Amino acid sequence: MENQLVLVIDFGGQYNQLIARRVRDLGVFCEVISSTTPIEEIRAKNPVGIIFTGGPNSAYLPESPKIDPAVYELGVPVLGICYGAQLMAHMFGGTVEAAPVGEFGKTTTYFDTSAPMFAGLPAENIVWMSHVDYISQVPQGFTITAHTDNCPVAAMQDESRKLYAVQFHLEVNHTQNGNDMLKNFLYQVCGCVGDWSMENYCEIAIEQLRQKIGDKKVLLALSGGVDSSVCAALLSKAVGRQLYCIFVDHGLMRYKEGDEIEEIFGNMDVNFRRVNAQDRYFAKLKGVTDPEQKRKIIGEEFIRVFEEEAKKVGKVDFLAQGTIYPDVVESGLGGQSAVIKSHHNVGGLPDHVDFEDIVEPLNLLFKDETRRLGTLLGLPDFLVWRQPFPGPGLGIRVMGEVTPEKVALLQKADFIYREELAKAGVDKGLSQYFAVLTNQRSVGVVGDFRTYDYTLALRAVTTDDFMTADFARIPYDVLEKISSRIIGEVQGIGRMVYDITTKPPATIEWE
Ligand SMILES: Nc1ncnc2c1ncn2[C@@H]1O[C@H](COP(=O)(O)OP(=O)(O)OP(=O)(O)O)[C@@H](O)[C@H]1O
Ligand SMILES: O=c1[nH]c(=O)c2[nH+]cn([C@@H]3O[C@H](COP(=O)(O)O)[C@@H](O)[C@H]3O)c2[nH]1
Ligand SMILES: NC(=O)CC[C@H](N)C(=O)O
Ligand SMILES: [Mg+2]
């Protein structure tokens, strides 16, 4: 790609993806790479600027992540943030040590506005701090460009070597004018021209796909979710009918969703096939109650169905996947983490179907960028702005054994829930919302009769990254309307509860 590039070098900070998004939002292409990336690779990427992220370690300890000092010889401006700032200070002979007073959260900071990064800004800004170490002595050649009451070096620079450092996190929203500081770094210091745009990306991606695929065939597992739908639209623009989309209807989609997906993609200029695999899924899931086992069965069956369909298409050269950038960063740069639940989609994918190669045209895009691309490619808003829907679908929202009857109950209730949230205009502010059919029955009284029906739980969360989430404060009168409609219209549901747990400790899905 011809775009100017800024590299974010990851030292294990929590905000590394956020830095990359901020840079891209300012019109400059940006990638996150590990701090262990060899310097030759960094040089070959020809960046116009480099940013070091924060990180949990202490820069002065021998086992803490380091960077090849040759990075400073590339002639490219470097900005260190938090750990990155401390590492820079340490490497150039300054003093970094445990601070007598750590700083966490909003902190008033005093700036030298003659420094290029702070040009045009107020001399006092509230910034977001999160550190226990600090730079007590700047290295030779550096000057202090910001301080707080407890932190003598909140920012430093050595203009002659184009080295810049901030102790605070300019990438988070809580930092006043943080975006302008980053903009100054990119445009005033690095000489960025702002050549990154979605139109530009789209054209280049289509051209690259055409070259790679030539006149061969591509297979795509299409869920109707945002990522695979945008992937389908892009591939369809690039190679038209050489694209084969396979949508597996496992019977665990939301109300009428299978038909909607068929309607949209059946009318597009692609080969589309809906596989009605409902019966075989329900047969496999019969009697199974353990959440992990249910997930495994659904994931496994995806592979089997997909395999069979792939064979029908004949020789397929490429397999397309809707992998997006956070998937790449999370699997490539992250550490070891415990398995909380197995996220299964088409996961492992067929072993014995012959693919020459994998095509992942969205693997550099964030979710919001993926959405923008979808709109640019002409996908309807309701597809582009869908909430995420897990591969195992309602299979993990019916607690305990999954039966067609229970799924039908849940589909109806979930539909009413979504419809009422939309009517009340509450849906726009939510990241994800759905109903869960608990396995619990409870006693009720309807028209003087005793009932003994299922309890339905409503879940609605707000989140940026789905790693942590807060439960949404849906107004009581909206909940009341939803409750009375569901109990009135869906026979078999006798009680409703609203889930008021955050993540952590709960997860977003119930299984
Ligand atoms: N029912 C399905 N039929 C075919 N492929 C599926 C199905 N469900 C999931 N997949 C595949 O698994 C991949 C990952 O699922 P995932 O839910 O992460 O992405 P998505 O559905 O495309 O988008 P979103 O995150 O918005 O739901 C999908 O991109 C798709 O390729
Ligand atoms: O593609 C998916 N396949 C899965 O198996 C899966 N399980 C959970 N999710 C979605 O991931 C986000 C976080 O969910 P949890 O807090 O429940 O782990 C939420 O958005 C969940 O809907 C899945 N997505
Ligand atoms: N957020 C950070 O990068 C923290 C850096 C370092 N671990 C400190 O506590 O000071
Ligand atoms: Mg999905």
UniProtKB/TrEMBL annotation:
UniProt enzyme class: ligase
Annotated GO MF terms: ATP binding; GMP synthase activity
Superkingdom: Bacteria
Catalytic activity field: XMP + L-glutamine + ATP + H2O = GMP + L-glutamate + AMP + diphosphate + 2 H(+)
Record keywords, A-Z: ATP-binding, Glutamine amidotransferase, GMP biosynthesis, Ligase, Nucleotide-binding, Purine biosynthesis
Domain GMPS ATP-PPase: 196-386
GO CC list: cytosol
Keyword flag Ligase: yes
Pathway given in the UniProt record: Purine metabolism; GMP biosynthesis; GMP from XMP (L-Gln route): step 1/1
Active site (record annotation): C82 (nucleophile), H169, E171
Binding-site residues for ATP, renumbered to this chain: S223, G224, G225, V226, D227, S228, S229
EC number(s) given by UniProt: 6.3.5.2
Entry function: Catalyzes the synthesis of GMP from XMP.
PANTHER family: GMP SYNTHASE [GLUTAMINE-HYDROLYZING], GMP SYNTHASE-RELATED
Subunit architecture: Homodimer.
Name of the protein this chain belongs to: GMP synthase [glutamine-hydrolyzing]
Organism whose genome encodes this protein: Neobittarella massiliensis (ex Bilen et al. 2018)
